[in-house]
Design goal:
Length: 468
Amino acid sequence: MVRHRILLIGNPAARPEGLERLLVRGGFQVTEEPTQSPPDLLLYTPPRGIKNLADEVRALIGRPAYGGAPVFVIVVDGGAEAATEALLAGARDALIAPVHLPELRARLDAHVRVRSEVHEAQEALRARDHLFDIFQEVSAALRADEIFQTLVRRVGQAFGLSHCSFVLTAPGEDKGRVVAVYENPAIRDLRVDLERYPEIQEAIRTERPVVIQDVHNHPLFAAIREHWSQQQIDVNVQSAVALPVFVQGRAAGVFFLRTEKGDPQLQPEDVAFANTIAQAAARVLENEERRSAMYRRQISAGTTDELTGCASLDALDRRMRDEFERARRYSLHFSLVLIDIEQLRDINERLGQAAGDRVLGEIGAILQREIRAPDFVARYGGDEFACVLPETDGPGARHFVLRLRQVFARHTFADLGPAKAPAISAGVIAYPHSEALRPEDLFTLGEGALQSAKGGAPDHIAIAGEAS
């Protein structure tokens, strides 16, 4: 329980008898000397015969050492007129002596309650703003690992954490897979021994959040502390939080936070905020599982191109009709992106058809990895691919293509070697479009845009309806 600090100032002889005892029993921390941090409240008893009460009150309110703490005044002389003077000068409350102590206690409690409610409302607004910013950033991410990295980074920054990560694991497993780390974004797929992390094991076993404020004294860490001692490992960890993430009713991972000595202590509202983020991570995992299931169904239904692993033309045609109808009916946006692999013919001529096929297979795998869960990719022709991007406008589709180029540039193709990625051109058609009245119109417009891109449009990307 938080003990609010009250600083008693003014004339001690004029204070009501039993005041300090009442305050201490009421749960307040009472002092008559200023401390390094400002008090929560000032209780001022003016000297008898004071002539400038308003000036004194204003001076107390403006004194930096008190941090603007609210001032309660016990008026000894002057009656209602003096109380009015104090209130007009900015006092939070004023009581006229003789003071009824239970009334004073009730007024203080009411102030503390209102202050707590205001603080909670401010924290809720802060959390809401953080969540809005986070989910805005997440909505622009394309891959699951990008989303995980965004979540751990934003939580780590918000609370000044020494460590924040997302670990995939399940009940009964002794290993975990770290897929995102705040303090080291380069870590994307690290296997860890869960015996070193008893808080993760406990969260997965109990399927409940684990919050430990002091790992050096908590019994859950007894075994690992003994290991630290035997190995003479100096561990600076202070607190640990492990929040289980559930996918379709089963534990699938843990949102993992640790602080070091000297870090700000995690408050209950911080843990609640992090838990909200953990549940967002759960939605990402569910989307990934759904996409994998859809891909498996495509393969079993014969709707997958064998060479690239992407969807077939028949599957693309069905998806386009479904997406067109959904967007038309509910006034939604989506984009069709046609991508041409420019040097494929040259690769076939120089290295052979088998090498060209392997390059196509690698490109197909990259495309499937880079799209979001609701997106769709198909092989459109010999050296062309088609991507359907729901809830994406023309600029968003252009960003998607630019990002693909960066991914291709970083990828080492087995038959081409480092820094030999094939170039791509792309045509984009964003729906709604005045000339797209049927799904077939989208393909026609997209192909026209692709020809413009191959003819030298800026960035070799053309959007149907935009001037080249």
